[in-house]
Design goal:
single chain; Rossmann fold; seven-stranded mixed beta sheet; nucleic acid binding; Methyltranfer_dom
Length: 280
């Protein structure tokens, strides 16, 4: 079958299924099977190629995350392994990383032996992006899920980045990190009870729901734990739902954080808590 005709058919199927970025997703699926960018695709597809693409398009029409179908995802210039049981990192989270890197780069000019901690690390996306761009820092990632922890460690090994990933509950203070970190970041489970896009039904529920009527049960604990881990003058950054800005700010201020504010994501929605631990 002619490649472009088959591609156009795939796009129409994805559009009919309600996939938002139908053409982009179809292109990535074709490039994955053909192992070539669009401009050098062959004129015709063989039977095996057609079958593989057809199967992948069907999976995407069923709203399985594209990352799971491809077995990989991209974050801040890094290619990461993606697999069921591990949260698919979103592009919006790159804003958190950008803020952390801007601050971390400045700190690197005046301090040594700097450490950063990523709570609820998942695939390791945030921790790995920090380590790749702050090579003089020691970055640690904490993750409770055995599946996600193994995924993060595999990503670190593949990328050759010396992030230390440990298994544990991010909502419980670990004494070894108390008053040790210059930077603490987190993209915790925070979603409040509501209807979600179909793709999320494939992802681990433990990585999504924040619990409580407003989804704030886990984020509130993360803020408290971060306070314990930070050195005076340290920075805490946390992603949250766009309805949780006021609540996260209030908790941070009550604990004693300074410079507390809500930052916006790529879509100009309130999505990130920014807070500093005051100097002594």
């Amino acid at each position: 079958m002619h490649t472009l005709f088959f591609f156009q058919t795939a796009v129409k199927r994805l559009e009919a299924a309600g996939v938002a970025a139908a053409e982009n997703d179809a292109r990535l699926l074709f490039e994955h099977i053909l192992q070539a960018p669009r401009y050098i695709w062959p004129g015709e597809l063989d039977g095996d190629q057609q079958q593989l693409i057809e199967e992948m398009v069907t999976r995407r029409c069923n709203r399985e995350p594209l990352a799971y179908i491809l077995g990989k995802m991209w974050f801040y210039g890094l290619e990461l392994k993606a697999e069921p049981g591990v949260f698919c990192v979103r592009p919006e989270t790159e804003t958190l990383v950008e803020t952390a890197l801007n601050w971390g780069s400045s700190e690197s000019k005046t301090a040594e032996n700097l450490e950063a901690l990523d709570l609820c690390s998942g695939s390791g996306a945030i921790a790995l992006a920090l380590q790749a761009n702050l090579p003089n820092w020691q970055v640690t990632g904490l993750e409770q899920s055995s599946t996600a922890l193994g995924n993060a460690q595999e990503n670190a090994e593949k990328l050759g980045l010396p992030v230390r990933f440990e298994q544990g509950d991010a909502t419980v203070v670990n004494p070894q990190w108390r008053s040790k970190m210059s930077l603490v970041v987190s993209n915790p489970p925070y979603i409040p009870p509501r209807t979600l896009p179909a793709e999320t039904t494939y992802e681990p529920a433990a990585a999504l729901w924040g619990f409580g009527e407003d989804g704030m049960e886990i984020p509130a604990k993360i803020i408290e734990v971060a306070w314990e881990y930070l050195l005076p003058g340290g920075l805490f950054l946390m992603e949250h739902d766009d309805i949780q800005g006021e609540a996260t700010v209030a908790i941070a201020r009550k604990l004693g954080f300074s410079e507390v504010q809500t930052r916006v994501d790529l879509n100009n929605r309130d999505r990130f808590l920014y807070a500093r631990k005051p100097q002594n």
